[in-house]
Each structure stands twice: as structure tokens, then as C-alpha cells.
């Protein structure tokens, strides 16, 4: 496994946000983590990135327990995080935003920039523009592009479709598919459960800080409980 979470507990003060979760991702997979607001999805990603340290359990990345590591050390090992709400630097240019993602290897970023501009041609067209002048969809592309600048082996995406129009959401999901095709493993947190499950190989459902379902994505798409709770469909009447 490229990433394994074992019995992971994370607290905010006395309140447990993750109550001993387990999750694993193999090299090359897209795994999606679904759940309602407040379920603990962002906390899971922030823990993997080293932004929160667990009170119990292990986070093993490629054989190394990273649970107590600092964020820049986790990033240096090959984990990159595109955060919820995008968090781009609005006054800095598109180019400067991308360079921030590569801050550990300032010398040799040309080929990473080329890869980002190939995936997101619009960022190449707007590279001198301040990030804050981009549309919501373009800002999301910039957030993902910035995360790719550190050449991650594992890319964490926190709600990349949030607040975007359906056409742009489709474009973002198609780019996520292309990123995986270049060999990057992806953990995708989404509220847009239908599209996430269509894209992913496997999925986990998080409720109140606990994993309540784990299965192949195509099976979760068919599961009546998932359909009712996360795909916005009424349960079939029992006869
Ligand atoms: N910085 C924080 N301080 C205190 N509680 C927090 C903090 N961040 C998140 N929480 C709580 O932890 C739980 C999980 O939050 P979060 O991981 O953001 O969920 P999700 O991303 O699934 O919406 C929620 O109950 C939330 O209110
Ligand atoms: Mg969240």
C-alpha cells in the first residue's frame, strides 16, 4: 500500500473528530472519501499532510510512519494537498502561485510548469495575472496545479468541485482522471458523490468521524444506503 491509516484518532481539544479510522490506498488508485459536512473529511486530509497530529494511530506512507512529521517533511516525501476553499494567493501572479508549490526545488521547476500548463492551458495564458482575478474554476485549477508542482506521488484533493458550475466540474473531474493516468495516486474528498464514485476505483463513507462503508466505487454507486444518503435519491418504497 502507498498509504495506510490505522486506528487514527484526531481531536480538537476534548472533541474527537476522527474516532479511530482505517483507510488504505494502493499505488495508482483514485480513492474517494465521502461524507456529510462535519464528518471529518478535511481533518483526515490535514492529518495526512501533517497539519494536525493524531492522538492515536498510524499514518504510514510508503513504509514510513508520517503521523508526527511536520508538513514540509511530509511534502518532501511525496504527499501534496490541494486544500478546501482553494487558498490561492490572490495578489500573487499565477506563476508565483505555482512557484510556491515548488518552493523546495526552486532550481528545476521548468518541466513541472510545462506539465501544469499542459493540463491547464488557461493557466499558461494567464500566468502573469494575479490569482485573485481568475474565475472560480480557474482558481481551482491553480490550486491543483500548485499542488502538482512538488511532483507528488500522492495528491490529496479537498472538494475540488465546490461552488463550481456543472460544466467546470466536469472539466475538473476529467483533469483528475488525466493526473492519475500520469501515475499519481489520488485521495479525493467530495460532496459531489455521484461524480466522485464514477471517477474513483474505491470509496469510503465517513460519518461522525467513523468509517461506515468501504467498497469498490461501482458497488457504492449501487448501494441503496449510499444512494439515499449521498446521491440525493429517495429510498425505494418497501413493499
Ligand atoms: N479547528 C477546529 N477546531 C475545532 N473543531 C473543529 C476544527 N476543525 C473542524 N472541527 C470539527 O471537527 C469535525 C470534522 O470537521 P471537518 O474535518 O472539517 O469535516 P468535513 O471536512 O467532513 O466537513 C466537525 O465537527 C468540525 O466542527
Ligand atoms: Mg471539509
Q: Outline of this structure?
A:
The chain is 36% helix and 26% strand. The protein contains 10 helices and 10 strands. It is globular and about 45 Å long.
User: What's the total number of strands?
Assistant: 10
CATH topology: Rossmann fold
The ordered H/E elements are EEEHEEHEHHHHEHEHEEHH
Bound molecules: adenosine-5'-diphosphate, magnesium ion
Structural features, described:
The protein is of the alpha/beta class and about 240 residues long. It has a single domain (about 5-225), classed as Rossmann fold. About 35% of the residues lie in helices and about 25% in strands. It is built from ten helices and ten strands. The strands form two sheets. Strands 6-7-8-3-9-10 form a six-stranded mixed beta sheet, with helices on both faces. A four-stranded antiparallel beta sheet has the order 2-1-4-5, covered by helices on one side. The longest helix has 16 residues, at about 165-180. The radius of gyration is 18 Å and the shape is globular. About 40% of the residues are buried. Adenosine-5'-diphosphate binds near residues 37, 39 and 43. Adenosine-5'-diphosphate (ADP) binds near residues 12, 17, 39, 40 and 41.
Question: Any descriptors?
Answer:
alpha/beta, six-stranded mixed β-sheet, binds magnesium ion, 239 residues, binds adenosine-5'-diphosphate
